[in-house]
Amino acid sequence: MAFYNKVGNLLKQSLSQNGPASMLNSIRFMGSQSKLFVGGLSYGTDDHSLKDAFSSFGEVVEARVITDRDSGRSRGFGFVSFSSDESASSAVSAMDGQDLQGRNIRVSYATERPSGNRGFGGGGGGGGNYSGGYGSRAGGDGGF
Description:
Blueprint: H1 2-18, H2 20-30, E1 35-39, H3 47-54, E2 60-67, E3 74-82, H4 85-95, E4 99-100, E5 103-104, E6 106-109
Antiparallel strand pairs: 1-3, 1-6, 2-3, 4-5
Helix pairs in contact: 1-2
Subcellular location: Mitochondrion; Secreted
GO molecular function: double-stranded DNA binding; miRNA binding; single-stranded DNA binding; single-stranded RNA binding; siRNA binding
Protein name: RRM domain-containing protein
C-alpha cells in the first residue's frame, strides 16, 4: 500500500510542477534506478578508477568495467551503481559528455536487457550472453 501512495504522490507532484514529461522521469526514479551505464571509456580505465571518478556524487555501491572474456581487455563501457537515486541523477547530469582519462564518456541510466537469445552465440544456452542483466550484449558489435 505504501508503494501505491508513493506512486500517487510522485505523479501528482510531477504533473503539477512540470507536466507529463516530468511524470516519466518520476516513474523511472521510483524503481530505485541507481545503476548507470558509462560508455566511451578509455581502455585504461579499470573498476577502481571508474569508482573514483563517480564517488564525489555519492556512495558508489559497485563500479564495474566490462571486459572481453577471452582477452580480458576492456570493452570500453561499464556500470556504476549508487546507493541513492539522487546520487545517480547528479552523476548523470555532471558526467555525461565529460572527459575521463582522455575520452568523452556517455553516462545514462542503465536499462534492463531483455531476456532470450539475441541472434548471436552458439546454440543451446545462447553462448556469450553477459549475465549482469543490464544494458550490454556480449559478442559481436560491442553492444551499442
